[in-house]
Specification:
The protein is an alpha+beta fold. It is about 40% helix and about 15% strand. The chain is built from 18 helices and 16 strands. The strands form 4 sheets. An 8-stranded mixed beta sheet has the order 5-6-9-1-10-11-12-13. It has a 3-stranded mixed beta sheet with strand order 2-15-16. A 3-stranded antiparallel beta sheet has the order 4-3-14, with no helix packed on it. Helix 15 packs across helix 18 and helix 16 runs antiparallel to helix 17. The termini are far apart. The protein binds zinc ion. Zinc ion (ZN) binds next to loops.
């Protein structure tokens, strides 16, 4: 039997704000001391009142704009009631009926992934289960940290696609400076829901597929029940997202082939065994008894261009103000880098995924551009040669530097080598002032000391010897000392020439320009 998988995702991301969602406590995900960033509000003491963190709201709206979402003019918080020890209020302030962002989409490799909604809520505390103890401890530092939740339509079709979607979403969050989205630190957490539907053999087309229980939220398109949905929770790496889905597709297909029933349940991912395992069986949808949060006013978003009066009178967030802060998005940057610098896709990917490195590259490129414009450059370089310079810069930045920095981070490079010095080295390579092995040596020293490449080249005697008469003398000596080899060459042994070039390189400690050496040798040894 053939099956069509239907996959939906829920992704949580902790927002990068100074303070928590509803109080003035510090939002510090790196705080190690338990219960340090807490106050009566986030500990839910009686009589306390929450206030909305406007920065968090703006960050969600910004994300919505980046993901082509409809932005709601009216939005409100709801209470999601459930009991758990890491939730001091006994309910979580979330959004149910009126989320900040409605339907949107994100293109992944030409496929449109539909987004149902993005809303804002608060994170819970953290339980610490000590080994061998009959109690657990609670750390409320995380309680009340602003948490954004993105829900997709059940429209994804493979583990690979889901992984690509998560990756792109993470890059967007980083570009927007909305979240650090570090999955290992739990700043971004993925959940998957997945069901399989047999493809009708006759028609070769799947019947209408939709999840039975996709939280029944507004905006879910289709409620026709088909295929039992299984949830996989707590996926904390992109690989885990992809592999758990692939595994689950296989597992469910095997069960269906044996005419067995798929149980509606929540499963976890075992990283060591690379399998999903049952965590709890969902007998019926949880009733969270949502109702509007009475302690917080609704959020109003203005889509108009506000006058000064409007700003004074209306308590609104204006979309115009947020649009002004939108950076270039990753996909736009990809297209621009490909076009402007004519770089291969692989290099563009590295420069876009690593925003700092991409910005560093563009600084080097603009240095090179300036150089081309100067008189010195103009004499020697045609404008069309710029592309060669960019290519050289990208190769040295991505390939050569990575050899040196395997263990360290890219920020290191940016701190250690200025864009000016990096560009200078590229110019030297381009002008054949240094050969590639010398360039690698210089780069290594630059990485260690951060020095100027021309100074290093001179000091280390790495400048290429291109002086004709000087080289002619050295080559003359090499010829006279190797009469036998010269004879071999004249008899047609091409390897003999390579040997002579090698002798000259040795004599000049690698500083000779091998092309010029070859040229002179050809001339001198002409039969
Ligand atoms: Zn607090």
């Amino acid at each position: 039997m053939k099956y069509k998988p239907t996959i939906g995702m829920e992704i949580h991301a902790e927002l990068k704000t100074n303070t928590k969602m509803f109080c003035g406590c510090k939002n510090d995900p790196d705080e190690k001391k338990p219960n340090k960033n807490v106050c009566p509000v986030c500990l839910a003491h009686p009589g306390t009142l929450p206030t909305t963190n406007e920065d968090a709201v703006k960050k969600v709206l910004k994300t919505g704009l980046a993901l082509n979402c409809e932005i709601s003019e009216y939005s409100q918080f709801d209470r999601k009631n459930y009991f758990y020890p890491d939730l001091p209020k006994g309910y979580q302030i979330s959004q149910y009926k009126y989320p900040l962002c409605g339907p949107g989409y994100l293109n992944i490799e030409g496929e449109k992934i539909d987004i149902t909604r993005i809303h804002l809520e608060e994170d819970t505390g953290r339980l610490i289960h000590s080994k061998g103890k009959n109690y657990s401890l609670v750390d409320f530092n995380r309680a009340g940290i602003p948490l954004m939740e993105l829900v997709t339509e059940p429209c994804l079709t493979s583990g690979r696609q889901a992984k690509k979607f998560c990756e792109e979403f993470q890059i967007i969050l980083k570009y927007l400076k909305v979240s650090d989205a570090n999955m290992e630190k739990g700043q971004m957490r993925c959940e998957v829901n997945i069901s399989l539907k047999a493809i009708s053999q006759k028609a070769g087309k799947p019947e209408a597929v939709s999840h039975k229980d996709h939280k029944g939220r507004k905006g879910q398109k289709d409620e026709r029940a088909l295929g039992t949905k299984v949830e996989i929770k707590n996926l904390n790496s992109f690989k885990a997202v992809e592999r758990s889905i692939d595994y689950e597709i296989k597992r469910q297909a095997q069960l269906l082939d044996k005419k067995k029933k798929i149980v509606q349940e929540t499963r976890g991912w075992d990283e060591n065994k690379q399998i999903t395992f049952s965590q709890r069986i969902k007998e019926e949808a949880h009733d969270y008894r949502y109702f509007p949060e009475p302690d917080l006013p609704p959020i109003k978003v203005g889509k108009e261009i506000p006058s000064d009066m409007d700003r004074l009178r209306d308590n609104k967030i204006y979309l115009l103000d947020i649009k002004k802060t939108m950076p270039e998005l990753p996909q736009d940057k990809r297209e621009r880098l490909e076009e402007e610098y004519v770089l291969p896709k692989g290099q563009v990917k590295i420069l876009v995924n690593n925003k700092d490195l991409g910005e560093y590259f563009e600084k080097i490129a603009s240095e090179l551009q300036e150089w081309v414009k100067t008189e010195e450059g103009k004499e020697k370089i045609e404008m069309s040669e710029k592309k060669k310079l960019y290519k050289l810069a990208a190769n040295y930045l991505i390939t050569e530097l990575q050899k040196l920095t395997k263990k360290s981070e890219n920020e290191n490079i940016i701190e250690k080598i200025t864009a000016e010095n990096f560009a200078e080295l590229i110019k030297m390579i381009y002008m054949k002032k240094v050969n590639s092995s010398a360039a690698q040596k210089i780069l290594k020293i630059m990485y260690k000391t951060g020095g100027d490449p021309s100074d290093i080249a001179e000091l280390e005697k790495l400048l290429q010897l291109s002086n004709f008469s000087e080289l002619e003398n050295i080559i003359g000596v090499a010829i006279s000392q190797n009469a036998k080899v010269v004879e071999d060459y004249k008899k047609g042994n091409e390897n003999a020439l390579q040997f002579l070039i090698g002798q000259v390189m040795k004599e000049t400690k690698g500083q000779a320009n091998p092309q010029i050496v070859q040229e002179i040798l050809y001339k001198k040894l002409k039969v």
